[in-house]
Amino acid sequence: MAFSAFRDYFAADKMEHLLTGNKFGPNEDIPDLSENVYVVTGGTAGIGFGITAHLLQHGAARIILLSQKQEHADEAKRELEKYENTGKVEWRQIDLKDLSQTDRIAKQLAEEQKIDGLICNAGEGFGKYNETTDGIDSHFQINHLSQFHLVRMLLPALQRTTGSRLVLMSSDLHRACPSSTAFDTQVLFVRAIVHRMENNEPGFQSNKQMGPWVNATHPGGVNTDQQDQAVEAYGKPAKVGVAVVRPLLKDPLDDGCRSALFAATSNAVPREKIQGQYVSRARSS
Fold it and tell me: Could you tell me the CATH number of the domain that includes residue 206?
């Protein structure tokens, strides 16, 4: 089961690459960011580190990294010195498994006068079922609920920043799911609540004159610690699948962060009015 999911995921990603190609190169196509302020969740490792490194290379005025572990932040800063002086990089500890702590950090960040980009990159992959201190499935709380709250709290700062971006990391792993899979009522309930908030809550929608430009992104199959989470959760079958697939996965620094960087920085987003789209392979679909 686990191996077939990995196989189908990689096959779908490879086919998409052949069909659409990749027209955005971070090293060449990211514009000057010298006046821009970014907030990146999970910005100290994996794809998030790649995003941070490129933002730093292109002169971002400030980069605020949100992650849980101090040691990861310290290691990331040491590695980032290879690309640029890290004096512009700030770290704030956030535990997305704790809603009250997430709320405190969100309120602090909401005081920022401007935020040019909020990149919600943090997330768990295949993992064991765990509940947070709030009694919620950790995967749902980390990947969705806590970062959704962060978005709501920082939306005013994004709205008052001309041309701001909101980037939501996603995945097309759903392609490996059987077509017969049925959504349960809980999922439909959550969707209904989100839809209601998007359409009725004052100030929730994007300001078309100012921002933000809101897009979801799919990074493709990327070599990160999420494969290790799969092995921990599913044991030997996943270990076999990871061993086969991992050599074929993309490097998070060179390629895995492209779609997120396109959505967060490319001048093509406002020029082509790329809004509410699913950005995959650095182009929208």
Answer: 3.40.50.720
